[in-house]
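Quality-control log, excerpt.
Job 1 of 2 completed; input and output follow.
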Amino acid sequence: MRILDVTGKEIDLQNPIPKDHLTPEQQKRLRELLLSFCAVFLGGIGKMKLKPYELPEKKGGTPKAKRPYPIPLIHREATLREVERLVKLGVLEPDKDSPWAAKPLAFWSKKCNQAQERYTMNKKELVSIVEMLREFRTILWGREIKVYTDHKNSVESTFRNAQMLMWRLEIEEYGVTMIYVRGRENIVVDALSRLPLREEPMLAAAAKLAAEEPPEFSLSLEEIAETQQHVGL
């Protein structure tokens, strides 16, 4: 039995598609099509790294390249938050090269001056962000920055105070995304203040006395009168 191709050449059944019959571009597209076929119908044999193709619906049609599905920004942020939550709970264990395996690069603290000590809590929260950005300007400039705060007023973009408005505009120069987190959920910031106190003898004794029920005192008028007579009142 002889099988001829469209050009009249005999096709070897052991090698039905010789390489010399296909151009390099055709060979590349054939490999991509076979990989797509395996990924769809054979459970994804091999790791597919090339562009996937859709099989034509009509007979004799040509394969059509599929575009990647664009995930909406709101869905992407929700997915990232869910992954971060699972990582914090220990459900997911990121690899050392994973972007979720983030580690602190630096710690920074600064004492307030006399003027800053009289600031309200909202102004202290905002000025701390400004001072932090100024300190690490060479590292943070041009990068994606997210600031998590438990002060909801700091997230707002409108301020009646001129000084706070200037600080907010300076923060905007870095392209910072302000994210509000409730105080009880912002465990990273308050980690040191939430550590259990060291058990000392005096503290343990005070806690024991506070837990005990107070003694009952009698308010009988007869006992009060007898006591007054005994004292001589």
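Job 2 of 2 completed; input and output follow.
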Amino acid sequence: MHGITKSAAIPLKCTPHQVTCFAEKNLYPLIVSVPLDPVKDVAYYQELVLKPLNQVLSSLVDQEAEKSDGPWQTRATIPMQSSENALTVRVVTLYNTTTKENKTLLAIGTAYVQEEDVAARGRVLLFSIGRNPDNSQTSVSEVYSKELKGAISALASLQGHLLIASGPTIILHKWTGSELNGVAFFDAPPLYVVSLNIVRTAFIVL
């Protein structure tokens, strides 16, 4: 595109699938897939890799000298379960109806890859991301996990609520601090929702 230049290319020893920005924590969460040793495991797994936002490395094959205060580093990984694939990752701001406060969390939607005669299912995962002030280490804490019917294909936050898309169905949830409770839904057949984009108080389905 005219006027847009590449600022950096970051080498990954894996296949990236989706990226989002966690500006509050200066991180880039990535969904990546990594093949395992077929002798040990014939399946594939996916993990979430958190990359620091403020560090840039010129990434030619010979690893040129750093152009900033350090290289891009893996801060934390979140492995998926056996036969589970991460499909979407979003940074969401949810209103806790118990504490009456907003909280920014990392949300992941997954799906299990199983035989065709097995009903589809997936998980919604919420994580709290923090920093240890003593050593600057990134801490990742799971605050919520629930298995749902269908693959979780898209996530987004809307006015403190969490939108969860599973195929053609979109459900609006409120967050209590320990549970997600559905409060409204929208069916969009024959669409298969892969992206939810928020514009003010509305959402756009792709």
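Post-run check on job 2. The domain at 15-205 is CATH 2.130.10.10 (Methylamine Dehydrogenase; Chain H).
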